[in-house]
Amino acid sequence: MLEVKVFELGLIIQANCYVVSEDGHALIIDPGSKGRGVQKYIEEQQLTVDAIVLTHGHFDHCAGADHFVKEYQCPLYIHPLDEPMLRDPKLNFSADFAPLVVTARPRLLQRGKQTIGHFTIEVIDAPGHSEGSCLLLLKDRMFCGDVLFQGSIGRTDLIGGSNPKMVQTLRMLKQLGKDYIVYPGHGPATTLNEEIRYNYYLQSV
């Protein structure tokens, strides 16, 4: 059974980091800082970390990536269009705070279903917040980064953002045809049907 544990990480901007686990294996999604609580949970649950996976390349979702890659000797994954953000503080939006460069060389997510360690993940392109923003689907769970929030959506005014592409992404979400449990980059979990029904931004496209 798939288990999801959420941690709010980050000293400047808190973002949701998720530990997704099943059968003793785990993925860490969007580690925004080192997160001692994350390591404690992994130790307590005796989990083997198969990979770190990023929904996009902004600093508040990847500042802990190098730490966890080193700690667990596991690969890092990101969408190819956001890969340059890891090495450029201006692109990852950290230049005005604490400039961040991720040194781990990532593997690139591919569109569609793929196996990462123990897990089968479906990756769906979801640009708008960033060029390489993507949805990570694991069974009936959707990890959407800053694409969709409870009652809102991600901003489109940062480098790589696009309002027209966000509109296309929102239309795509309405056509998925399945009520996923949605785990966003900030704020509480929700469901896709709930957002389609009540989220103004989804209603308006």
UniProtKB/TrEMBL annotation:
Q: Which cofactor does it need?
A: Zn(2+)
Q: Name one Pfam family in it.
A: Lactamase_B
Domain Metallo-beta-lactamase: residue ranges? 14-186
Print the keywords alphabetically.
Answer: Hydrolase, Metal-binding, Zinc
- Kindly provide the name given to this protein in its UniProt entry: MBL fold metallo-hydrolase
